[in-house]
Amino acid sequence: MHRCYFISPILLRDRAALPQWVASLERDVEIERTTAETVTRILAEVRREDLAAVFRYTEAFDKVALTAETFRVSGSALAEAHARMLREQSQLMADLQAMAADIRRFALAQREALRDVDLQLPGGGRAQERWVALRTAGVYIPGGRAFYPSTLAMTVIPAQVAGVKRIVGVTPPKPEGPDPLVLATAYMLGLEELYTVGGAQAVGWLAYGEPSVDLVAGPGNRFVAEAKRQLVGRCGIDSVAGPTEVLVIADGSADPAWVAEDLLAQAEHDPDAASVLLSEDRGLLDAVARELATRAATSPRKAILDQSLGHHLRLIETSRELAIEFAQTWAPEHLELVVRDPEAWLPQLTTAGAIFAGRHSAESFGDYGTGPNHVLPTNRTARYSGPLGVQTYMKRQSILSLEPALAAALAPRTARLAQAEGLHHHGESARLRGLEAQDHRHS
C-alpha cells in the first residue's frame, strides 16, 4: 500500500513560533551525538593505524576488502572506462563535457575576480596581499546510494583553476567495482589520483594519511560531514555539506507540479533530506500536497522518499514577511523563489547557500553545471559560508616590505604601542631598525 504524503499545510502567523518551526528541521540530537561519537572513534583509529584502520572500516561498512595495492584506481582503468563510455554512451559523455566546460568557465571568472592588493606606502615600502593556491586538496565524491560524476567535476575543476598541484579524489567502493562513469569523468577531467574508499575513514585518511591534504572538499552523508567538522584545525574544509535541504517560496503564479518536483528533487537524495514550501496561497499549498502524494507513490525513488518526506517535509502557509524571516533564520542550502518578481525579494535574502530566482530556475539546473557550484553548506552553516569555488582552494597571504626610512619613522610609534601592551621585545625589535637608520644618516 502506498504511503500518502498529503499533509495539511501548517499556518504560521505568529513570529514567536518561527524559531520552533526552524528547530523542527534540525536533525535528531541523539543521532547527531551517536554520529559524532562514531566518527571520533574512526578518526582516532585512522590516525593511529593509518590504512589498516581504513581498510577495516571499509570492509565492515562497504563489504569490500581493499589493500594498499588495490584501493587506488590505476591510470589504465581510468582510460579504459573513458574509452568504453565514449563507445557506449557518447551523448552522455558529450553532456558531461559540456557541463564541465560551463563549470570551468564560471571558475575562470571567479579566479579573475580575486584581486591582489598592492599598496605603496608613503615613506618607502609596500603592503601587499595576494591569493595563492593550496598545495594539496582532497575531494570527496559521494557514492553510497548513487555515484555523482557531476560532483566530481564540481570539486575538481575549481581546484584545477585555482592551481592546486595535487588533487586526491576518494569515492566509496562497491563490491562490483568502481562506477565506470565516475572513472570516465575523472579521466576526462585529468584527475590522476582516485581512491575507492569512502565514509569518515576516507576523510580521516586524506587528513592523517599519506596525502596529508591542506583541505578536504565535497559533500557526503552525516558521517562524512561530521568527520570534516572534527578535522578543522588539522586541515581546512570547504563547508559542512551534509544532508541536502531546499526551501521553496512560491506564490499563486507557481505551477503545483513544478513545485512538487522541485521538493522531490531534494528529498530523493537522502532519508535525512529536508524539503520545505512556504506560500501565502493556501490553494497552491493544497495543490502541491496532492501532487506530492501522486508523484511520490509511483516514484522509483520511493524508498528514500518514504523517509525524507515523512520526517522533513513541511508545507507552511505564511506571509511574505515571515517567509523572508524563516529563510533568513534557517539559512537553507538551496532557496527557490518561484514568485512573480524574484528580483524584489533578493535584497532581503542573504543567508541561503544558493538562490534560484524565478519559476524556470529549477535547482536541478544548478546541479548540472550551468555555472555556480552545487557543493553548498547545510545545517544552517550557510549563515557564514558559501558555495565551493576557486577561492575555496586558495588563501590570502600578506607581504610587508619596508624601506629603511619608513622603518625608522614607524619605530617610535611601534615601540610605544608595544610598551603599552607589555611586549618589551616587540619594541626593541622596532627600535633597532630606527637606530640603524640613524647610524646610516650620521655616517
Short recap of the structure:
This protein is an alpha/beta fold.
| CATH-defined architecture of the largest domain | 3-Layer(aba) Sandwich
Please work out how many helical segments DSSP would assign: 17
Number of strand elements: 14
The CATH topology of the largest domain comes to Rossmann fold
**Shape estimate:** globular
**Biggest sheet strand line-up:** 1-11-10-9-12-13
Strand content: 15-25%
Note poorly predicted spans: none
Write structural notes for this entry.
With 443 residues, the protein is α/β, with parallel strands linked by helices. It folds into three domains: 10-27 and 243-371, 3-Layer(aba) Sandwich (Rossmann fold), CATH 3.40.50.1980; 32-115 and 133-239, Nitrogenase molybdenum iron protein domain (Rossmann fold, 3-Layer(aba) Sandwich); 403-442, no CATH class. It is 49% helix and 16% strand. It is built from 17 helices and 14 strands. It has helices spanning 18-23, 29-49, 51-62, 75-88, 90-113, 149-162, 180-189, 199-208, 222-231, 256-267, 282-297, 302-312, 320-330, 342-345, 363-367, 404-420, 424-442; strands at 10-12, 117-121, 125-133, 136-140, 166-170, 193-195, 215-217, 236-237, 245-250, 274-279, 313-318, 334-338, 354-357, 394-402. The strands form three sheets. A six-stranded parallel β-sheet has the order 1-11-10-9-12-13. The protein has a five-stranded parallel β-sheet with strand order 6-5-4-7-8, sandwiched between helices. Strands 2-3-14 form a three-stranded antiparallel β-sheet. α10 links the parallel β9 (245-250) and β10. α8 runs parallel beside α9 (222-231) and α16 runs antiparallel to α17 (424-442). The longest helix is centred in the N-terminal third of the chain and has 24 residues, at 90-113. The N and C termini lie far apart (97 Å). The mean pLDDT is 93.
